[in-house]
């Protein structure tokens, strides 16, 4: 009986060694398992969508953006019109001022020559002064008419713009 017991103990020890060897082999194979899970995990970088879904999204964006774009375009157009009107007004004012400068320049030499001629032309000096006053009055009236014309044009534009907006 001792011999059979000794054979059982030897067989049990051999089984334990095989079991230990199997456990260490499994540990070696499983120790890298978390890294393998991470490596083998699939990551979607780009998601494929059906074409109708993409078209719906595009249309939604278009519907959302179109009113804003139209509003911004109208604001820009209004601003350009304002700048154009201002440019026209400034040009008209510059022309008027240039005309005034030219008329003043042409009048100054004549007034100097009249004052240099002295006493014999006092009567014509009074006429020249009257003529200068009349020319100045004419220039003022011309300027006022141009200003009123510009204001009338501006009001017409505003009226057309308000009618177009309705």
Automatic annotation (TrEMBL):
Keywords: Centromere, Chromosome, Cytoplasm, Cytoskeleton, Kinetochore, Nucleus. It is found in: Chromosome, Centromere, Kinetochore; Cytoplasm, Cytoskeleton, Spindle; Nucleus. Residues 96-133 are annotated as: Disordered. One of its GO terms (cellular component) is spindle microtubule. Residues 102-118 have a biased composition (Low complexity). One of its GO terms (biological process) is attachment of spindle microtubules to kinetochore. Belongs to the DASH complex SPC19 family. This is DASH complex subunit SPC19. It comes from Aspergillus leporis.
